[in-house]
Fold this sequence. Notes:
Keywords: Lyase, Schiff base. The protein has helices spanning 37-49, 69-83, 98-111, 128-138, 152-155, 161-167, 183-191, 209-214, 229-241, 244-257, 269-280, 297-310; strands spanning 20-21, 29-31, 34-35, 55-57, 89-92, 115-119, 146-150, 173-178, 200-203, 219-220. By secondary structure, it is α/β, with parallel strands linked by helices.
Amino acid sequence: MTATTIFKQTSNPQHFALSGIVPPLVTPLAARDTLDIEGLQRLIDHVIAGGVAGVFILGSTGEAPSLSYRLRREMIKEVTRRVEGRVPVLVGVTDTAFVESVALAQHAADCGADAAVLTTPYYFPVGQTELTAYVQNLAPLIPLPLMLYNMPGLTKVWFEIETLRRLSTISSIVGVKDSSGDLGYYANLCKLKTVRPDWSILLGPEALLAEAHALGGDGGVCGGANVAPQLFTGCHRALVDGDMDTAEKLSEKIREFQKIYDVGKYASRHIKATKSALSILNICSDLPADPFNRFLEPQRNLVADVLARVGIL
């Protein structure tokens, strides 16, 4: 299946445009601080065969803050090598330490990644003036096109719209991924295209893919596309083509798929459910990073039931 993507890199290294479905890849683990290399290869081939527009590693679904710096670098090296240029590779470089973000971005560039992704610093909350200065200081040191990532549920800080408007003067910033789930905010985010028509505006919450498209968004960074890439790429393609009957049918399947995230009682259930589903499909290990535990058999059975209802099994 051909990827639904627009991707360009010309003599201007900051020229980057992306539309479609970009799965935030899980980080397959064979053991603590050890990649499941064979599983990683199967996962990469699985999502690319499903028509994704790119892959995003070391994000929330990739458990980046729980991984050692060594393992993050290995993940970057292995993914860029195994993707083999078939789709763009976006790398999360967020860290509590400024210099570590710069170092990780440089490693990503050295490995051949296509873009870096940066959310707001976490643990110590920053004000919007501080956040603006942080990005203004960091962006010139990132040797890749830079996508900003609004994830207030985990970082506790928003990229406010006026902050993004101020940051829009930085040419190396090529778009925003929004995982807030606030469609009012997303609508205002899409309006920033009047200032930066080249920006890619992507949505995180996968169940809102159709609503985001109607507001002018360019696609989604959908965790479920790890498991069922064709479901999400098919829905996005139908939306772009104006085939609303197909889009609604696939949106209904996506809403049913969301029930895997109802399994378990902790916030970590989203990662556990995704990895559990991938394990059930014999793609990669379901081992999460510490401090989390994998789902036990009763929870795995519930995930399998959802996959069967959606037609993935």
